[in-house]
Fold these 4 entries.
Entry 1:
Amino acid sequence: MGVEAMPDRTGARLLALYDRALPMVYGYLIARCGDQTVAEDLTSETFLAVAGSSGDAPLTVNWLIGVARHKLVDHWRRQARQERLLQAVEGSSFEIDDPWEVELDRWRAREVLARVAPQHRSALTLRYLDGLGVPEAAAVLDRTVAATEALLVRARREFRHLYEESNDA
Amino acid sequence: MPDRHDEPLDALRTPVTPLAPDPGFASALRHRLMQATNPPTRKEPSVSTNVSNRPRNGVHHGDVSYITLSVPDLARGQAFYGHVLGWRFSPGSGRHGAQVDDVVPMIGMWEGDQPDGGTVGGAVLGFRVDDINAAVAAVRAHGGVVNDPHREPYAIAAEGRDNQGIPFYLHEMPSPESRPDTGHPWNGEIEGDISYLTMVAPDLGAAQTFYGAVVGWTFNTGRAGGAQVNGVAPQIGITTRPEAGPATPGVIMCYRVDDLAAAAHRVRDAGGRANEITRRPYGLESLCADDQDIPFYLHQF
């Protein structure tokens, strides 16, 4: 039976897209979380969530990557809760976002990114790795634009602090 | 935010680059998606296999009538084999046991002691016999121990240990409608069925004498240290030394799966171990252990 025989079935359309979409979704996730097990888990969550959704989903690779992005942010949100960092970091005082003129060492920057607080990693990943605008990042993070801007300020501060510290080491 | 603040971090921009994941993972996820979108496919009767009508307690004298898979923890066992083989369970005779639905031969999972009070980690085979009194007499005449036959709801049964201490059960039960004899060895028909049973017995000759006398087995002794039982279902081999795992006397189960790469992934996913897949003359094989350290094989034919 061909896929055309059941065009309204999300599952059939997803399976037809699977071979092409899987390396893209997995490639997106592994490049951002850097852990095979986590990338596999989130890839599974992404596809299974779509398989279980209603039939009106726009099934494209880009749309699946968008779902994966949400799963990644959810993962870091859970991690933040587990690490009990949320309150401490959210409660930290707002500090001025000084201009920072530096040419980042990409490899070291990625290493630093893996060490910032999970909610900061989410914000920086969406804004810089994925290149989303602040309003789009805010939508994924389920925050207001203003709250996302404030989060990005704190995230950049932590990133910069750890980056400069790693330079001194 | 002023853009000048963003500039250094813009170097982090990472376009999406495709990367193929582990093939076992890819295959397992496809399997899960197919199940999620077509849930009834797995255990429903297929064109060639009417699951509900299959004889599950053997047909001939010497066939395996029942298998007890003895595990330290029943709930863990159910979770593991449910995940790996798709087994579904019905309540057993007590809280220490559960029956596996549909698979052939019939399997019960059990976390308690054996009838003689001993414990076993792994499988205990039950054998169909035509005359249980004759079989019990043969056990006692050939160095085994066995209790007296007693009537159970499912059979006239007796439980014992062979002349090397390997536990077994005997079952005399009404003849089922005969399965058409295809002339081929029986290695299971659907995922989760027993594909083969490896009996580990330190003394091959003693095992041949004992089971020849008790359940009428005859043997094909192809290679040193091993013998194949002729004409039983499922197929059984006896070996003095297993390929891996502890060489303790007992029985190692082998299960049929549809997609071995996906199944091996599920084994690891569920906390077990799965060795590399090897190609054998009869199909693909992987030696595994469950999350309670019970070894088993998976076969894809």
Entry 2:
Amino acid sequence: MANYIVAISIFAVTFYFIISGKLDRTIASFAGALAMIGAGITLGFYSQEEAFHAIDFNMMGLLLGMMIIVSVCKKTGFFSYVAIKAAKASGGSPLRLMIMMGCITAFLSMALDNVTTIILVIPITILICDILGISPLPIIMSEIILSNIGGTGTMIGDPPNMMIASSANFSFTDFLVHLLPITLLAMVISLVALAFIFRKQMIHPSVDFSPISQINERAAIRDEKSLRKTVFSLIIVFALFILQKQLHLHHSFIALLGAGIVLILVRPNIEEIMKDIHWPILAFFASLFVLIGGLEKTGLLNLIAEQISRIANANYNLAKISILWVSACFASLVDRVPFTTAMIPIIKQVGVLGFNIDSLWWVLALGVGFGGSGTPIGSVVGVVGLAMSEKTSTPIDFKIWFKTATVVTVITLILVTLLIGII
Amino acid sequence: MKVKDIMTKDVIKISPSIGIREIYNIFREKNVGGVPVVDNDNKLLGLITKTELLDVLIPDYFGMVTDFLFIDDFGALEEKLESLPSLELFIAEDLMISGLISIKENASLMKAPVLMNKYNIRRLPVVDADNRLVGIVTRMDVCDALFNGKGRH
């Protein structure tokens, strides 16, 4: 009992500091992890070896590998190229611009990092809207929402998916089969909902499109050679991911191999690349794994797993729906990363208790992924997007967010709920 | 030699409430590249150069756009800038670089070029011990002192 109380107190205090922002989340989780190990050694529920093994190096390697590839990719001007191409294809219609920009953000978020995508796409979006003389707000909103939805669609789209992939031993193709179709459906429905919500801004008869149509998007590419090499490396990575099961390769090995290939081919300044890597995020993940590992060793998480199994025994779909909505609430109100980290040992334990947990993993991924757009603080993409919109003449505030993004999030979650039987 | 030996003592300075058009007129009429902003007590608050004047025209978010060299026609954005109704509302306080680097009048002459090159600045406001503006020293002032072997008198 003492173990429970100590472990949960350490967890609660750490969690408080992470979500209140009173302490940087990496520092808070690092301190929490150290406290958990200290308490574990003293009380005998958690050893240093166990703490070390709690860190999912496979997931962290996957994340690091993808970060390196993205870091090389973003210097080539590729993101601006794609954004201009999409803007040109819109023909100056605000509705088509919203659909095009939303979709490219979603697809880039599926293949690369969501936050990088948003940081590079939103400013060019604001510029394009200003050139056209239309409000960037609906388009920024669709980019934020579709970035979160798109990131849910693939194994490498978002860190929670990477964690789930590593823990459940799901391959890249498993995600394509189970999550991509529903993600694409959610994208379509979100765009329809956004078009309806912003229907007034979508009518804009007199737009002078010539400044956009004159832009030569190829000029946006700063380094074509590096871009070709990056795309080549990405193709290798995706090919290996697709053949992952046959080749018995770890997720991290494939991503790091891709990073290695891109570094050898492009030979960028390694110091600059390393500066681009979000080391605090990696440290945050490692600390969380250690922290949650301690909680798991006390047996506390098993109690939650038993509750879920009880619901699942009575009605399996009800268990899935509960996980979906609880995950979405945690993702939008608290922080999806610690939540996912805590859910992983719980779902594993439900599996030990004799349930087929495959669909629980998918529901968790959908809940934390789609739920990220529920509030402005639900995802890093939302926080960054909101801050960027403040520099425009029509900033997004919490009220606008709740009237648009929250509504769309609830719609996408209802969609998943309706389809829960086939997930 | 000290900074005060080479500085220009007769400085054109403005108060923080001066309007943008008046600032433009100062640049237009007097041959200066920057004007210090001081309060009633002559304490240094900031500095305005032509860069700050131009910055008014550039939307805030431009700093976040990684590259826009490939865009030649700014369309509606340009029309909006040309007819910027709020332009006249800007005052010195909104434009000035605050927290700027200044130099003490009793500092050694050597310190001026060190600061100028390290922070890539053209002119250094010179202040006394109480942060009151007493002069300004430019790159040319330092060059004059170096090449003519003596300060300006």
Entry 3:
Amino acid sequence: MESLYAITTGVLTACGLYLTLRGRTFPVVVGLTLLSYAVNLFLFSMGGLTTDGAAIVDGAGHYADPLPQALVLTAIVIGFAMTAFVVILAMRARSEVGNDHVDGRSHDHDEERSR
Amino acid sequence: MMHLIVLPIVLPLVAGIVLLYRRQGGTRLKRLVGVGSTALLVLVGVALVERAGSGEVAYYALGDWQPPFGIVLVLDRLSALMVLLTAVLALGAVVFACDGDDERGSNFHGLFQWQLMGINGAFLTGDLFNLFVFFEVLLLASYALLLHGGGKSRIQAGVHYVVLNLAGSALFLIAVGVLYGATGTLNMADMASRLAELPAERAGLVTAGGLMLLVVFGLKAAMLPLYFWLPRTYAAAPAPVAALFAIMTKVGIYAILRVYSLIFGEAAGPLANLEQAWVWWLSLATLVAAGVGVLAARDLRLLVAYLVLVSVGTLLAGIGMGSPRAVSALLYYLIHTTLITGGLFLLAELIGQQRGKAGTRLVRGRPLQQGGWLAGLFFLGAVSVAGLPPLSGALGKALLLAAAEGGQRLWLWPILLLTGLCALIALSRAGSTLFWRSQGEPAGERLTWRKWFGVTWLLAASPLLVALAGPVSEYTEATADQLAAPQALIDALLPSAGGAP
């Protein structure tokens, strides 16, 4: 369980990071989304993984740490809002600047010339 | 007056919601609410400073959940000072905006209030996760304010700013997660008391978490490898927003001061002063880069943006020195630089409006309609920001230079003074181009009292800070002493600390 969880989080982070470093806005947005999924998973496990634990109800017995669950909910909400915003921003940038490069200038031109 | 501490957050929140009521129209009423709420915030700030000035650490437990379990707002001298500073800066910016800048897009005043809410919340919170939440609140508002009015350069700067800050937020959450995993708490005071008895095998985790936080705060404060977003963003933002952004880098500085003095203070044993060496060297490098940037800037707004960077480097150097004397000097300099750079952003807008097509670019243009007054204000701001006597910049820098000890002097003195020289050269070149190298008929319209008020309100801080240097530096010294002894804060929040973990 632990290793599966750790590998999933790691792979998500790596993919997110790679995509965030791309030059066009769409991969960057997808990358940021993956990064926020990875962070949410990481936050969820931050108090240590509890398997087969119930939610905290009576306060007695074996239960999962409730704090990360509350934090993850907050982080998910904020992450959703941010993703929506960045998608709109990317579309505005595409229509105002005329291309979808994060720097606002198209590099295809130079590449074709250098060939 | 028990609820005074929560007012800096609730007041802008409510004002922002009221302002949402109508998206278009109702301009007069909106301006009244926006300015009224900001003016009230100044009064609240004064009351908070008065209360914190006695040295007592007060906290406000939201929903009456006692720390360390509930969410708390903590008021000490530092947070009270920052809240007052924010309100004073915001009042100048919001009055300036009432002259038409607020009508270039929708919901300016509402977003402005929410930005204030986020900033005040970040200054007051005593909880690491809530620091993240308030960072997000202020960032979300700042994204929208940056794009206020639209335009190509703003959108381009906005894409970089938003993407960088989203990545920073992800890193912030990871750091908070690591620290929670290692210590089992998010309350900063509680975390500090638990670090004292940290098992040795977790020290590595805490170090990693603490330094990741430094990266996040460094991004907000614009420390050297992480500052490249700042000049373009600040130069592209609408003037009143850019003026308010002058406090945003200081939020990063505040967070570094707060987290590393409280959590990683002397009591943290081997983890104490984790950040100091990093901050010290990076601050000097930031100063050098900012000095070069100031000289290279070909636009007045870009020039002021690089001056913000100079101030960031200077402030970080104060943190890097670490002694209470240096912290006191940096707090004095922080008040000065926030208000003056904010005022200079507003002034740059006025100069640009009066020069017709040339705008704020440093090229030959038309003479200014009210050039005399503007030149006088520019002179005042330039003398102050470059750190020449007799204004507050010189005083702040002298305090910082005097606080350097031993080997630190060897590095700080030449770099800080040379950066000041760079600023002086660039500003005198800019001033002579703007006001003297002109031809043709005067362009632009006469300016209204609102714009004059915004600029004068902020720039007047400089002579005032000199006149009131005694009481202000007494307050900053007391603040630095309070920061150097975090145990008092921990005891106030957790009366039973030291017992069961």
Entry 4:
Amino acid sequence: MLTSYILITLIAMFGHSEDFLGTTLLSRPLVLGPLVGLVLGDFDQGIVIGATLELIFMGNIKVGAAIPPDVITGGVLGTAFAIMSGKGPAVALALAVPISILAEMVASGLFVFRPVWNKRFDRYAAEGDYRGVERLHILSGLLKPLLMGVVTLLALLLGSEAVRTFVDTIPPWVHSGLQVAGNMLPALGFALLMNLMFNKEGAPYFFLGFILTSYLKLPMIAIGGLGVITALIVTRITHKEQPPAGTDSDFDDFDMDDNPPVMVKPKAALLTQGDIRSLFARSMALEANFNFETWQNTGFAYTMIPVLKRLYRTKEAMSRALKRHLQFFNTAPHGSTLIIGIAAAMEEQNAREPDFDEESINSVKTGLMGPLAGVFDSLFWGTIKVIAAGIGSSLALQGSVLGPLLFLLIFNVPHLILRYKLTFIGYETGTRFLQDLSKTNVMDKLKAGSSILGLMVVGAMPATLMSIRTPAMIGSSDSAVALQGVLDQIVPNVIPLALTFLVFYFVKRNVKATYLLLGLLLLGFLGSVLNVFA
Amino acid sequence: MIRLLRIDDRLVHGQVALTWTPAVGAECLVVANDKVAKDDFLKMTMNLAKPANAKLLIKSIADTVTFLSDERSKPMKILVLVNSVQDAAALAGALPEIRSINFGGIRAREGARAISKAITVTDADVIVIRDLLARGIELEVRQVPTDELRSIETLL
């Protein structure tokens, strides 16, 4: 048993290393669940539990510094306890939800604690000691997997028996209540996603997704494909070429020559292709030392170090550069390499031209980090992650190992290609790339298209990923008709759809997610006891 | 009408585009900032980040007051973004319509202390905050709409 505990702890530590691994979704329950299942000898169960937890935590995304419940610790422990006690997904979620909320407090504590190192980072910067910066960035980053590893191991050692005894005392009617409640919880995830994208213009695409799955029984992958096609057709037809993407009239007299921080790649480069590639590789550890005071600052400095080493030979120049890049920074990690590439080009120019305005490097960084976070957060969290999770969970719920695999591929193939390319685009074309982009309506098309695609997939979710039925009968005992049969003839899957909209209504009214979660649990429980839902 | 006045030193970014704009149903984002209004580069970056279904206006504080006082802006659902407590106070002083201010993010600066995960204040900020509170304006701290709403009074 101890071996299993240690292996499960290692899985949790691997998950908590996500900040070294470029936010590649390796830490999501859909991926870690099967791994825990493998350790405990029930791979299939691990896949199904992982998918169930993925659905419930689907709406929890990391935007800016808003930290969602810790699904890594919650997911790993919930899956482990459920498999060890021989119970299914219902027990996993009953445990994962409270654990993830508690674990989030521990992780947040670490983010509050980390600024303690900032004085030491400043000292290294003053001495031009880039090795010190690298070392401390990594060491501080390792604290998270270590700390959460200890938490996981302790929970397993101290909690397993207690959880097993507790779970065994759960009477069957409570267990079936939990099961129904668990099947209802994804409605919260869907509603939180809808809250990000649902609006009047988008509503038809949501219902298109619903109808395609509910009536035509199309699988999620088909919805993804049709969504891409629909998005392409719609954005090409309805969005005519217009003057600058901005609706602001000031943009008409946008004069490029007046922009001080325009960067174009100089002719003879001081940096090698290898240097630029290492920017991409190092950007994976951008968030390793994430903290609540200066956010991703040490990650940015860490990423830039290969370039700085190449460009600055004196202690003074290195010291100034390190100080520059240790200033507050925060952006969406997936698109961070664009800013990193631009910063590298500006550093190169600075090294070449003695009268270059060093301050402009940071003003470009801070000018870009917010807006680009807006662009890439929407694209990756609002669209690509949604499609990956929709397709991945729908396959995994049937126990297919393709679920977690496709989940990772659908997200990371575009993510890593774009992240790699953006490093070079940023370095080679500087801010001109953005200026050219702002003169076209590519961004508008991309945003409109990705919201269409996202909404179609979300619309397909209640029908494919939630199974709530009613065992109720209508009419007197002799001529009683199953209500579900009647519903299926009119609108199949109408119950999951209605539940999703009910939760969405409350989300719109700013009811806290925790209350909604408890409300859904209660509704499922009562529904099961009163034989209204099954 | 103004659906939300938010203090956020990154102005338009992920939390704003992805969560607040849909949450308050904003059709129009107004970035009220004297520096950005004069900086074409920053304007360009913000235009890239604006949410697909909303209009983005970037104006100086004075122009923002003019715009928001205009009757024609009344039917629009507007989300106003400023990057400092002082700018928020300037708008609240000129526009009696503002009864609530959202504190989204103010990064660590020289002489500022942290009062929550994402908010730091200087002594000068605190004076302005006390003054706003004395005028009965609600000051709430939330990064994203689903965060628990906390009054700034309890954090000072």
